[in-house]
Amino acid sequence: MSLAERLAADEITITAWSGVPDSLTVELLAAQPFDAVTLDMQHGGHHEDSVLRSIASVQKSGKPVLVRIPVGRFDMASRALDFGADAVIAPMINSVEDAQKFAASMKYPPVGERSWGPTFGMPRYGKISQQDWLTQSNDRVLAFAMVETRPAFEALDGILAVPGIDGIFVGPSDFSIAWSNGAVVDSTLEEMMGTVAAIAERTREAGKFAAIYVIDPKIAGRVVGMGFRLLATGSEGQVFSYGTASLLGAINQSIKG
Amino acid sequence: MSLAERLAADEITITAWSGVPDSLTVELLAAQPFDAVTLDMQHGGHHEDSVLRSIASVQKSGKPVLVRIPVGRFDMASRALDFGADAVIAPMINSVEDAQKFAASMKYPPVGERSWGPTFGMPRYGKISQQDWLTQSNDRVLAFAMVETRPAFEALDGILAVPGIDGIFVGPSDFSIAWSNGAVVDSTLEEMMGTVAAIAERTREAGKFAAIYVIDPKIAGRVVGMGFRLLATGSEGQVFSYGTASLLGAINQSIKG
Amino acid sequence: MSLAERLAADEITITAWSGVPDSLTVELLAAQPFDAVTLDMQHGGHHEDSVLRSIASVQKSGKPVLVRIPVGRFDMASRALDFGADAVIAPMINSVEDAQKFAASMKYPPVGERSWGPTFGMPRYGKISQQDWLTQSNDRVLAFAMVETRPAFEALDGILAVPGIDGIFVGPSDFSIAWSNGAVVDSTLEEMMGTVAAIAERTREAGKFAAIYVIDPKIAGRVVGMGFRLLATGSEGQVFSYGTASLLGAINQSIKG
Amino acid sequence: MSLAERLAADEITITAWSGVPDSLTVELLAAQPFDAVTLDMQHGGHHEDSVLRSIASVQKSGKPVLVRIPVGRFDMASRALDFGADAVIAPMINSVEDAQKFAASMKYPPVGERSWGPTFGMPRYGKISQQDWLTQSNDRVLAFAMVETRPAFEALDGILAVPGIDGIFVGPSDFSIAWSNGAVVDSTLEEMMGTVAAIAERTREAGKFAAIYVIDPKIAGRVVGMGFRLLATGSEGQVFSYGTASLLGAINQSIKG
Amino acid sequence: MSLAERLAADEITITAWSGVPDSLTVELLAAQPFDAVTLDMQHGGHHEDSVLRSIASVQKSGKPVLVRIPVGRFDMASRALDFGADAVIAPMINSVEDAQKFAASMKYPPVGERSWGPTFGMPRYGKISQQDWLTQSNDRVLAFAMVETRPAFEALDGILAVPGIDGIFVGPSDFSIAWSNGAVVDSTLEEMMGTVAAIAERTREAGKFAAIYVIDPKIAGRVVGMGFRLLATGSEGQVFSYGTASLLGAINQSIKG
Amino acid sequence: MSLAERLAADEITITAWSGVPDSLTVELLAAQPFDAVTLDMQHGGHHEDSVLRSIASVQKSGKPVLVRIPVGRFDMASRALDFGADAVIAPMINSVEDAQKFAASMKYPPVGERSWGPTFGMPRYGKISQQDWLTQSNDRVLAFAMVETRPAFEALDGILAVPGIDGIFVGPSDFSIAWSNGAVVDSTLEEMMGTVAAIAERTREAGKFAAIYVIDPKIAGRVVGMGFRLLATGSEGQVFSYGTASLLGAINQSIKG
Question: What Gene Ontology cellular-component terms does the record carry (chains A, B, C, D, E, F) (predicted)?
Fold first, then answer.
């Protein structure tokens, strides 16, 4: 079941979030019981080479692979798809124009302006003709626009109306900074939660997918309740931190008796 | 003989097309009897590091090296030249403004706005003074604008008139998608062939070089007849495919007697 | 003492200038008695991966680390900070609009639009809370706008007035090309020296830091006299050249007696 | 069907021979219609890191992966298995003692002395318990001893009798140098062909697998007739050479009409 | 406090165990609350390059760094020290002769035969003269011989008597295979536990350090009770597994309410 | 003129000494006015991959390239030649048996046992037939045995008599440690200088080449007087140190007036 089909079925999907640009680390992360893996090129360390190689690592696990591009790097959105990504997340889509540029890079004509050349992605996908790849890709690959500023929220309906935009991804830390006008960073800032819920609601009403980053696992139930179905979590640093606490806790308990 | 001199002499020049971002693979490809090697950063996997290192691999073979940049990444056009490239191919030059930005990144003042700093390119070139490098580079390095959409074709004369644009490179797969409004991908689509010929003709009339990607070798004679002189072919995948067919064919013939 | 504090104290600060994208080479360069190290992504070979890894090499030496981004790659300015850079140098800031985009990428709201996510930078910095990182970063990290063309010089006062721009960095080679309308490259071109001095003066009057690249060490005293305090020099190539001359000179003297 | 099962069924198996230490190049090679891929660490450029990453590339294609280690590097034989290799080829096994050391590194006790720790290999294999991995590995992974000198040929029966040695791999170029006492290198040297046939015959009589490198495809039928079933061919250089000849041949034919 | 001092003070020391040959992954692992980090070149994926770069990552955290070399690769023991390692663990030290070779590679004359050349290790260590480095290294760096077979156990007293061997490291999985003559792999095999305890006891009686790998945290208290003070645990795979269980557990609990 | 020819002509040859495993750094070092470049795998950081790629960097400069292997790693001696090295330096050749193993790995039969397979070296060399490569290599590539201990000195005549050993390379730091029985490290230790001179003398009498590492340039004249012709110096660290002193000295002088 592709990511598009899974989300269309309204299934909760939890993606790990890789920031270490190394295909072996990604291979180990993809072997954990997450539903998908995202490679982060904005705040994480992933780059062209690591994305190209790490996509294969995730594909070997049979899971979908998403790529978050740096701000405004729509050339990389197309490249991620050419390398085999199932979805791309674009940060700081703050206007309809941003959304249009993003969509153009993600979809073949006539929807967008994606250029032909799936050099790595097509062989990695399995047996498929060039013509079928052209015909099927626009539906199969997903474009998530990040909403994480006030202008983005104000432009939400317009962004949702752009052909080729498949979902909205909320960045709650940036949203809290925006909401507090730079005063605080708090991914569960209570004052913004109503707005976050509204984003999910309007996104679903527009027939598109709602996604969000979950830093504090305790917020998960609440955002699922709001309608978010794609939940991102589990950077290498976070998983290492949880794992070390758990492992050293068990060792120390054994030692101290 | 530089690439510029070779094309000025109207010689047919066939460039391999590397998509594997590894300088050793490029070294092996450059050792084959192609006339030049292009490093593809748009649909291929090449990136800053592989281009920097692979340019040296091609130079060791004595052949010209071209770089195709990702869409709109004119910062990289300048960098490719600073690393030692002889030419840059820019995809999706769909307007005169695109062409102007591209030319600006490729040529030193007063033609363009290329910034000074041939950190790797100048030592790799051989004995040359800074002043000579400044004076000679604009003529020696070539800027190829890709024409692969309807708007690009409509803007062709304007693009050809931009100072610093040295040639037009046709992307036939994208052009077929554009021509069919997204319906088919076919690098030898008959309906567009008249237009492809017209591009070569007008490019030559403008005193510039006509280039094209040749996926199906059987089309080569026809495009040469149209006036194209720089022919791109031979990605690692394509060469592997042809070579394996040939080698395994000979082995199997020997076994089956 | 941070780079910001050091420059605020008007101390002459000499930064090495790394163009080799390799964290071990940077480690060796950072061990030399320079005051700081700059990683060059414009004309040097540094890229996302090498910057991510080399910043750690410089930090291990206890010195500040600066990153020069490619032209217009403000996405990378934010990333350099997320990786732990203390300052970013942006080339070809030729207008107030350029300066505003650069500042936006460097400073968190409300000054700019930098996105939250110091995945590597915060753990590398040492013990600090997310909230303190948000509050302190805008003052601690420095944005240097390169002035190296005539339009840039004409826009200088406007650039200096942009909130978030902390200093001006003069690129003397490009400036000489600009000043001579493409005729010569000469980092100590006498005709432009009055203007170079004026840049330093106006920058200091605006309460900002004046920086310049010093290719010929004999110019150092003069530019310090003009008010420049951050002096860049010492690419790997230049240091190798000076060092080999010195070492082989001593060996040959010993042999020839 | 594993490599062991395939050879036990007496099926002709043709392995490509990768010498480029890059997992993407290996991915492309593995996608060609060879039956298996060998990573060469002796004369090829493969090393620990490339083997670790390239094994995953071959596994993604569903084909067996073999590793040829450098001379005497039995530590690497164990490591190749820990990384997931299906077989190891050891060069210059010139004595029973050499064969014993090799076998010791390849098989768990009580057959050999392989150390426990399939850090990467076991997760890559799929669902299997530690205990099953221990029990099944000795049969599943194959140890090929290279016979390529006169002493090796003289020790052949002893080598074949070493528990844990699963097959003999003939290196015909070295064998020709040995046979001619250093005078010629000729992988199809007629004088040695009777001996080559004898190696296959005695290997099969001992119930083990006979393998050989095939440089000239025209020899394939003859060596299959001798009883060799694992045939190695198709280095990147050879495949590039065959492929370029084929592709440029077609292009030139089209151009010349 | 150095690793040698820490163990001399009989402090329990828990080292993480890195198998991913990537210096950034090691940086993240070193930031977790382990007391030290070991880079595994035997069953893990570490190699010369990753060890060279990852040692710097661990040093940045202020923690000791150990390296486990492949079987018999005593050339690498010396290299690990030249790169800056504080200790080396050598697998399969099955005889006094093995121990002597290992010690020779670890200690400068007159104790051993380590060759001079701390190209990277000395600058990384901080201010120290060449003479002090020579004089102090033999005491500061630790050589751990792995005992994991019956012959090794039988030679234990001889191994402990070799000058330059500082400790014994028990590999419990291999030891269980050895103890069961290849029948089972079980790191807590009850039948061998008395022998494991005897190893610790005799090691401590010889004035040397006892170390062991702890796969199941519940065994930690027991082995500490036996006298082991250096406990290895926490490979990336294990920490990922514990961490994902913990994180996804919390998320799922939040969702299910 | 090859390295063998140059030394046969008794020309003083100064080789740089690279320890940074990065082909770009090596490219920059090779561009300096040294006569040759050595890649150090013993105390430097070079490894299989960096040697493979860096040999091409040195070859591009037209200079000979040498490789120093780790202690006892004769598998790597052969590989260095397969990658294109002109000479190999083997450390710690302390006995005739060591010298025989080294020579065996360096020379094709009948002199040695080098295995056939110049996968990279032959194409890099230029147009040459396989047969000529076989016939000419033994004379063209040079094997330098390092003499740096008392046993090595005692075995010197025997080592010099081994067919295939082309020269002796003195490691003066290790030799001083050996000479002082571990008490001091001093590459110009006066007490050993007579012995060092004797090594050169006996080496030349045997018709072989004398080489030595020169750390202090002031010793150069003296060792040339002894008969040494291949002088190694100029690690990246040393060249950086000399170069920074020279460059910053000039800058500071300019500033202080």
Answer: cytoplasm
CB contact under 8 A, F56 and B52: no
The CATH number of the domain where A83 resides is what?
Answer: 3.20.20.60
Of all helices (H) and strands (E), which one includes residue C168?
Answer: strand C167-170
CA distance F120 to chain D (A): 8
Torsion of CA D99, D105, D106, D107, to 10 degrees: 100
Asked if A237 is an interface residue toward chain C (Cβ–Cβ < 8 A), one would say yes
Region of A202 please: left (phi>0), alpha (psi -120 to 50) or beta: alpha
Residue B39 token pair: 């490093």
pLDDT digits (tens, 9 = 90+) for D51-94: 999 999 999 999 999 999 999 999 999 999 999 999 999 999 99
Task: Identify how many contiguous H helices and E strands chain A contains and give both numbers.
Answer: 13, 8
Q: How many CA atoms lie within 13 A of B186 on its CB side?
A: 12
Q: Do chains C and D touch (3 or more CB pairs under 8 A)?
A: no
The length of chain F in residues reads 257
Q: Annotated catalytic residue: which of F14, F35, F43, F150?
A: F43
Q: Which residue has the tokens 């260095």?
A: F80
| Contacts within 8 Å (CB) and 24+ apart, B134-141 | B134/B108, B134/C177, B134/C182, B134/C184, B134/C185, B137/B81, B137/B107, B137/B108, B138/B107, B138/B108, B138/B111, B138/B112, B138/B164, B139/B4, B140/B2, B140/B4, B140/B86, B141/B4, B141/B81, B141/B85, B141/B86, B141/B87, B141/B88, B141/B106
Contacts of F31 in chain B (CB under 8 A): 123
Q: Min CA distance, E91 vs chain D (Å)?
A: 9
Q: Residue written as tokens 């020290």?
A: E81
Catalytic residue among C14, C22, C27, C43: C43
Strand B65-68, strand B209-213: pairing: unpaired
Residue for token digits 């930005």? B101
Chains A and F touch (3+ CB pairs under 8 A): no
Chain C residue numbers with beta carbons less than 8 Å from the beta carbon of A174 are 115-116
Residue D114 backbone dihedrals phi, psi, to 5 degrees: -55, 135
CB A210 within 8 Å of CB A187: no
Q: How far is A36 from chain E (nearest CA, A)?
A: 13
Residue F51's domain comprises: 3-256
- B184 reaches D (C-beta below 8 A): no
Residue of B nearest to D237 (CA): B28
Structure tokens, B202: 């007008």
Query: Which portions of chain F are predicted below pLDDT 50?
Result: none
Residues in chain C: 257
Give C60 to chain E, closest Cα distance, Å: 6
Between A23, A31, A56, which is nearest D123 by CB? A31
Of D24, D53, D59, the CB nearest to A24: D53
Q: How far, in Å, are A235, B21, E249 from residue A25 at the CA level?
A: 11, 20, 22
> In this predicted model, what pLDDT tens digit does every residue of E71-80 receive, in sequence order?
999 999 999 9
Angle at C215 between CA C214 and CA C219, to 5 degrees: 60
Q: How confident is the model at residue A1 (pLDDT cuts 50, 70, 90)?
A: confident
**Cα C113 to Cα E227: distance, rounded to the nearest angstrom:** 57
Shortest CA distance from D217: residue in chain B: B251
Q: DSSP H helical segments within chain D, as ranges?
A: 3-8, 23-30, 48-60, 74-83, 96-106, 121-125, 130-140, 150-154, 156-160, 172-179, 193-205, 220-226, 236-256
Task: Annotate B93-136 with DSSP letters as a single string.
Answer: --SHHHHHHHHHHHS-TTT--PPS--TTHHHHH-S--HHHHHHH
Residues in contact with B245: Cβ distance below 8 Å, sequence separation at least 6, in sequence order:
D246
* Total domains present in chain B: 1
CB contact under 8 A, A53 and D123: no
